[in-house]
Each structure stands twice: as structure tokens, then as C-alpha cells.
Amino acid sequence: xxxxxxDTEDGNAYTYDELAAFYKGKYKKxxxxxxxxxxxxxxxxxxxxxxxxxxxxEAPxxxxxxxxxxxxxKEEAAEEPxxxxxxxxxxxKEESKGKKAEPKAKAKAKDKAEQKPRPPRKTFKxxxxxxxxxxxxxxxxLMAQNRFVSELSVFDLNIAMxxxxxxxxxxxxxxxxxxxxxxxxxxxxxxxxxxxxALTGSSLVLVPAGMPRKPGxxxxxxxxxxxxxxxxxxxxxxxxCPDAILALIVNPVNSIVPAMAELYKKKGLDPxxxxxxxxxxxxxxxxxxxxxxGKNPRYINVxxxxxxxxxxxxxxxxxxxxxxTIDAEKIPDLDKHxxxxxxxxxxAKGGKGSATLSMAYAGARLGGAVLAGLAGARPKPECAYVxxxxxxxxxxxxxxxxxxxxxxxxxxPLGELNEHETKRLEEVKVQLKAEIDTGVKYAESxxxxx
Length: 450
Hints:
Layout (H helix, E strand, L loop, with lengths): L3 E3 L6 E3 H8 L5 H10 L6 H9 L1 H4 L14 H7 L6 H4 L2 H5 L6 H11 L10 E6 L6 H9 L4 E9 L6 H8 L7 E7 L10 H4 L2 E6 L11 H22 L4 E4 L4 H14 L7 E3 L2 H15 L10 E3 L6 E3 L15 H9 L1 H8 L8 H18 L7 E10 L2 E11 L2 E5 L7 H26 L6
Parallel strand pairs: 3-4, 3-6, 4-5, 6-7, 7-8
Antiparallel strand pairs: 1-2, 9-10, 11-12, 12-13
Helix pairs in contact: 1-2, 1-8, 9-17, 12-13, 13-18, 14-15
């Protein structure tokens, strides 16, 4: 007698042949075999024999293919001796509701439909520009582990703390299918002359590049330095992978993203391909809410909109079921905690660094959502700083974004705001508009090379 095991999907017992026939075309043979090995053997062998001996008397005509152990539960339960009812009673509810058709019946239906085999999962090439830095190395590690990544390029300057070839060699030793290669450029050279191989074929370019803000340095001063750094990379991407999503972690994000998007627009490319990574604000808000409520932050999802600096960061605590249970008088301080979290890390590191590990985590989270969208996997929305018409007068705004097979497929509306959030939004508008204008003016005075 062929061994039967219990399918965890419906709690019914099947032979390997029945299981394989049902899942044929849906999964590969090795996957079915692996699943079979995880299943527990069906109990009560004597009960199985009895069920097999009486199928024609108990099963209605035309339903023999439904499996010989699946007679009408009430009749079989009445005839079986005590101690042998467990098998019959384990299955009546599901069968009576028709939740699980027998493997052979479903296999026949599938054969008639001539279903095509499931296509292989889409995978992509990803490039990390600034991949040898404090954010770049852990970001490259996380992306190398992403199931949608088949090829990873790590690019950086020759003054980076670690040569990008070394980062690539290190990552090539971990247990993933991603092939990693490093690319280096001397300081002062033009990226467009060195990034052809690194960028060609890339679907996602992550850019944790640029200089950190120094003590006493204004955001405008920082913008002048980092805008030119970002422009060099964006210029190369426009030439070698114009359809790729460019996800920027270059401060000040509120000005850099509009500047690069407007340059893309001037060149006739899609400005929506330029995305600012603000995911760290969401990650922090979720974590802080979890600490206050004692809930798991993985099941908390606070949308954080606006921008990615100081008061422009606006967490919408009222739109998360856990966060909205927090006392209203605690919200202003919690709001400020999210805004100042970056400074808290700088202070904790004694001025010797900023948020690198958490930023890499956040960047990989957004990068994963982009890749899942490109693959047609329909990821949940993520907050990102993008070209937007969500708020009048602010052409760029951090919103909940749905990523699809061409990148940003939908920018979702703000939703309902409470009194505190409505007041804060007015504060956001004033500062964010000024920072957007800085980026737009930069784009007006320059352009991307051919």
C-alpha cells in the first residue's frame, strides 16, 4: 500500500503520486519532492485500509476520483468501531465546504486547461555608486542578498576607505547567485568616462554618495558640493541606463532630487525615474512607536511624508492602527524625535560618523520594493521623495508610492490628517518649497552632457 502523508494546505492525506499530480505545472519536481519530505505520515493505517475497502458503497457515483479515504464523513463515522474515528473526523468540515478538491480531479482540470509552466523569476542588475563607503558597503551586502538581484556593480572613488574591487571580492564569497564586480575612478575624473560597464544594463542605481555636512556648514553650502557629485553620476546613468530607477541618498535630498529630476526632464528623460530615499524616516517612526507601545515594529507602518530634513519630516501617526493609540499629548514629542533622529546618531557616535547601518537598511528596503515592482510582484507601497502633485505648490513631495514594472506607477494621496498633522503640514510647505526652489534653480543653470 502506498504511503500517505498529510498535506498541510488542507489537512488531508495523499500518496506522493496524488500530490505530484495535483501540483504538476505549479511547482518543479524537486520542489514537490522537498515539500513531500516535510509532510507527516498519515496516522491510523487500519483506518486507511477500511476506507479503501468500501469506496464504491460510500462514495456517490461520479465522485470516485475524489480519493478513496474521503467517504461521506457522517456515515463512515457511524459504521467504524471506536478508536478509528479520528481519520474520518479530521476531514469533514473542509470537504463539506468544498475547500479542497481531490488531487486527481484537479490534475484532470489542469490537463484540460493546458496550463503553461510558471515563467522564471525576473532578476536584475543593480549598481551602487559610493559602494565602498559607510552606507555603501552594508547596502551592497543587503542588495547582494536580494532575490531579484543577479548582478551587482560596486562603484567608488580611489580615496574610498576600501577599494571597490575588494568589496566585490568579499561579497562574491557569500551564498547568493549575485555576481559582484567592483569599479574605481580617480578623484577629479568624470564619471561618464568610467561608468559605462558598471551602469550598462542596470535597472536600479542606488547612490549613497556625496559629502556629509561638516560642523557650521549650511545646507546651501552642502548642496553646492553634492549637487555636482550627484550630477556626474546622473549624467552617466542618463547615457548608459536611461530607463533605470535612480534612488538617491545624497544630502540635502530635498534639493538634490528636484535638481536631478529637472535635469532629466531637460534631457527628454522621465523625471519620475529620480527617487529620493526617505525610508529611514519611516523605519525610525515604526521603531519608536514600537518602543512606546510594546508592539513589534515590523507590524507597524507609519507613513512619513513631506521631505527628508528637520521640520519637513512629517510622520502621520494617525494612519497607523498602533500609533494612533498613543496619547495625543505624546505625539508632538514623538514627532520631534523622528525629525531629530539623525542628529541623535551623530551625537551618539561622538561626531565620528552618522547614520550608516540604519540608512543602508532603509535603502535596501526601498531598493527591494523597486525591484519587486519591476518584477511584477506588486510590493506594498513605500514612502519616497518623488515628482508629485499631491500637495499644491510642491512639485516634489515624499508620499506613499506604488512601484510597478516601469518604476513609479502611482503616487498615493495624503489621506485624512488630524489636527496636529494638518498644522504641521503648513510648516512643511514653507521650508520644503524653499529647498525645492534651490534644486530647480540649479537645474536651470546647467544641463547633462550628451
